[in-house]
Write a structure and sequence with these properties.
This protein is α/β, with parallel strands linked by helices and 322 residues long. The protein is built from 12 helices and 8 strands. It has one domain: NADP-dependent oxidoreductase domain (TIM Barrel). An 8-stranded parallel β-barrel has the order 1-2-3-4-5-6-7-8, surrounded by 4 helices. Helix 1 (21-34) runs parallel beside helix 2 (48-60), helix 2 crosses helix 3 and helix 8 packs across helix 9. The longest helix has 15 residues, at 82-96. It is globular, with a radius of gyration of 19 Å. The N and C termini lie far apart (42 Å).
Length: 322
């Protein structure tokens, strides 16, 4: 299959954040074997070489062809300057062993000072982690300059589609006023505790598709100390009750809610049975009353918030959401 439109993107993507290098290649292979055709990567995840190895193994063993896969990656904060956007994508392509991406996105609307590949890759958040008091180092690069470079990547066919992540409404309005090529997709944190109704509606009004990351809520952040187990949506009594009534798992219910409300999702599991269970959520149809009941759980709880984790982990106060 050749993906011609952003609307052709497989709606359930396999997320590659926090997959250790030593198991990443096999995990990617197993995900493809389980039926995933969308892999959601990023240079910052530090495992793109291993992702590429998994892709190559799957193709070599006849599980798929390159054109059957939708491969997404993201431009890191330190590569926002126009001089660094194309080299950053070329580095990602080299690591993945690919000639092109299906989708390339700005990872955060945060510009940090450039760190050369040979000095440290991926550079992560600290400018100088060996400093006695390491901090982030913002760079004066307008997002409009970064976006124009993203547009050129699509013109050169290095990526088929371009998009944005973690943009609030104000930055989306601004982008739509200066772009020559519109973003095709917005990826944001969204789950029943953070429904983001207004932002999703705005993006769709502008013609963007929307992908929800962390669709299960707190799970990805518990091991990082950013959430407690008690916050898990999988423990929510309303979720569990509805799932029992429908004879599906709580995870399938939450993922199907996200898909039924018109967003695609990025989800991860290292367990093969759960990989398939998550993928099968795309086959579950919910009525509007069920969707509304789950949406009513919203408490505007954000787990991936630079206004919190940049200060806690990187000694720099840097909010992007009010």
């Amino acid at each position: 299959m050749t993906y011609k439109s952003i609307k052709d993107m497989p709606q359930v993507g396999f997320g590659l954040w926090k997959i250790p290098q030593e198991v990443c290649s096999n995990t990617v292979f197993k995900a493809i074997e389980s039926g995933y055709r969308h892999l959601d990567s990023a240079s910052d995840y530090g495992n793109e070489k291993e992702v590429g190895e998994g892709i190559k193994a799957a193709i070599d063993q006849g599980l798929c062809k390159r054109e059957d896969l939708w491969i997404t990656s993201k431009l890191w904060n330190t590569y926002h300057h126009p001089n660094h956007v194309k080299p950053a994508l070329e580095k990602t392509l080299q690591d993945l062993g690919l000639d092109y991406l299906d989708l390339y996105m700005i990872h955060f609307p945060i510009s940090l000072e450039f760190v050369p590949f040979d000095d440290r890759y991926p550079p992560e958040w600290f400018h100088d982690p060996d400093n006695a008091e390491p901090k982030m180092m913002p760079s004066r690069v307008p997002l409009s300059n970064t976006w124009r470079s993203m547009e050129s990547l699509k013109e050169e066919d290095l990526t088929k589609h371009i998009g944005i992540c973690n943009y609030p409404s104000s930055l989306l309005h601004d982008l739509m006023n200066y772009c020559e090529t519109k973003p095709e997709i917005l990826q944001i944190e969204s789950h029943p505790y953070l429904t983001q109704e207004k932002l999703i509606r705005l993006a769709k009004n502008y013609g963007l598709e929307v992908t929800a990351f962390s669709p299960l809520g707190s799970i990805s952040y518990e091991e990082l100390g950013g959430a407690e187990e008690s916050e898990s949506l999988l423990r929510n009594e309303i979720i569990k009750s509805i799932a029992r009534d429908l004879d599906i798992s709580p995870a399938q219910l939450i993922l199907s809610w996200a898909l039924n409300r018109g967003t695609s999702i990025v989800v991860k599991s290292n367990d093969e049975s759960r990989m398939k269970e998550n993928l099968n959520a795309s086959e579950i149809k919910l009525d509007q009353s069920t969707i509304d009941k789950i949406s009513a759980l919203n408490i505007n709880k954000r787990y991936n918030d630079p206004g919190i984790f940049c200060e806690d982990a990187f000694n720099t106060f840097f909010p992007i959401y009010d």
